[in-house]
Amino acid sequence: MTTADQRTAARTERDRQREEWALCSAAWRRHRRAFTDPGRAITEGMLRLAAPRPGERALDLASGVGNPALALAARVAPGGHVLGLDLSPEMVAEATAVAAEEGALNVEFRTVPDEGTLGVPDGSRDLATCRAGLQYMPDRPAAVRAVHAALRPGGRFVAMTLGAAERCVPFRLTNGIVSRHVPLPAVEPETGPGPVSLSSLDELTALLAEAGFTGIRTEVFEAPIFEAPDPASAWDLFTETAGPFLKLFAALPPETRKAMDEDAARVFAEAFPAGPVRPTGEILLACGTKPL
Ligand SMILES: C[S@@+](CC[C@H](N)C(=O)[O-])C[C@H]1O[C@@H](n2cnc3c(N)ncnc32)[C@H](O)[C@@H]1O
């Protein structure tokens, strides 16, 4: 049961997310290979669990610029289709442009007003994915119920989230850098949606079970999250794509930003002294089936 206050808080949170992801959507497209190529183990893990087949109709919630929607599109061809859904119209526009660039004809991207309103007929999809998306949603149970409704009986859903910041090198390093210059709670509230706010496998599996998914299988493993050729590029990648931090970075006095940049160059160089910056993180996967 959600109260009027909870609904208002959820709307405010979505407005914040929409604004933040709009600010970095072009950068996500520009930098997409820095995530998709090193992050292939994550996407492949999701696809292994979801087991897409040619001819199937898939749904990808919080699709960003198309990961894993575009990989799924290749797997359900010929004859299959992927619908990518995202809260941010700007992300949807970038994903649409990426799909056109890559010649993916069996994928379409659409904006959703909220995570519980997918605009998809009940029972119309064979499988669904959500990669690094649920943790940003204010009403996760509504999102998973909506995915469940969109699937046919026997349909599969695989969700991926990240482990806690201490187990995710990119967040451990960047939280450390940022918090030396500004108070961290200003950046990532301890409660509420954020990149590492759904870091418990029990919580993730409970979300699927409570929505009605059965036969839940899970995987936890360590995998690269992104790759950059050197420390300066790694920090640029982070400062251009980290939705929740972008407004904060834009508002920093130039001297604070300069000190943070220098700190970041030192921290990344110390952590990756011998070549490319390829930080790993703990990956949580959960896959459930809608009962027949
Ligand atoms: C970290 S990105 C992940 C994108 C992509 N799945 C990937 O793995 O590269 C998170 C995405 O979640 C979307 N998002 C945030 N809140 C959402 C919500 N309530 N409903 C749907 N999408 C949401 C954002 O717009 C953003 O595109």
If you had to describe this structure to a student in words, what would you say it looks like?
With 292 residues, the chain is of the alpha/beta class. The chain has one domain (4-164, 193-226, 280-289): Vaccinia Virus protein VP39 (Rossmann fold), CATH 3.40.50. The protein has helices at 4-30, 32-36, 40-50, 69-76, 89-101, 140-150, 169-179, 201-211, 231-241, 246-251, 254-271, and strands at residues 57-61, 81-86, 107-111, 125-131, 151-162, 214-224, 280-289. Strands 3-2-1-4-5-7-6 form a seven-stranded mixed beta sheet, sandwiched between helices. The longest helix is centred in the N-terminal third of the chain and has 27 residues, at 4-30. The radius of gyration is 19 Å and the shape is globular. 46% of the residues are buried. The model has no long low-confidence stretch (mean pLDDT 94). Bound molecules: S-adenosylmethionine. S-adenosylmethionine (SAM) binds next to helix 1.
Give the total of beta strands: 7
Residue-averaged pLDDT, rounded?
A: 94
Span between termini: 27 Å
H/E element string?
HHHEHEHEEHEHHEHHHE
CATH architecture: 3-Layer(aba) Sandwich
Output the keywords.
single chain; 292 residues; alpha/beta; Rossmann fold; 7-stranded mixed β-sheet; 11 helices; 45% helix; globular; binds S-adenosylmethionine; SAM-dependent_MTases_sf; transferase
